[in-house]
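Illustration: Exostosin-1-like.
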Amino acid sequence: MKAKKRYLLVLFSCAFLILCYFGGYRLWESGESKVNGITHKKDRLGYLDILESYREKDLVYSPRLSRKERSLSTDSVTCYMDTCFDFSRCVGDFKVYVYPIQDRISPVYQNILNVIQESRFYTDDPSQACLFILSLDTLDRDHLSPDYVKNMQIKLSQQAKYWNDGKNHLIFNLYSGTWPDYAEDLGFHVGQALIAKASFSLSKFRPQFDISIPLFPKNHPKKGGERGTLTSNNFPVSKRYTLVFKGKRYVHGIGSETRNSLYHVHNNKDIILVTTCRHGKSWKQMKDERCEADNKEFDR
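Result:
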């Protein structure tokens, strides 16, 4: 008899817990809650509202990246201009200091440094500088690239005398990560440095701090070119081409869906979008039916 009572007590307890669980869940779903006998309506947040609240708390990150990759790329440091930048160094003239070059750098990065050093903002006196530019080539952080600089963290500690956890430093980057996932791993601790980077992802970009720049080719001229349309006040724009893109088409992996669809827009008149499948070591094994024609058009 006592055993039966114990079983009944357990059964009623389980039923009560299930009732509380599903009752509470349905109450949450209805958007109502009761506090001290008063019913309160809860605002239901949509996806964009939740994403925005995560952005404000700097909680947005890519689930594909490991903790190590996220820490290497931006150190998970929350930065704004008023928290990670020392404006006291910028009183008076705006001056930029470039570290002396000690290692081999790519011609593209050399052009960037030349432009800065030939400008009126350059100073060779670090005590007068508002901004610091590394002489270490950070443009190409693709492990498969011949321009990839190894042991960047060690070289940074040895050569960046005024690093100070990256404060008032500007890092240029065009390529990060490597095939096939292209995780944005710069391979060294960025800290409080500003990043001027092409193809920024939402998970890495720090709003009101980092700078998104276009991805320019390696043969991009250092100086020259036509006057900008806005400057010359030339409206409507009389250009032969409305839109032009030339680049690699990934036959699989990240970026493949977007670039594989570019041929739909290409009209071979004012919209020119040409791609090549020649990318990576196994493109021939994974090429599709359009690769041969696309490669010929790309070469032409």
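Reading the tokens back as a structure: The mean pLDDT is 77.
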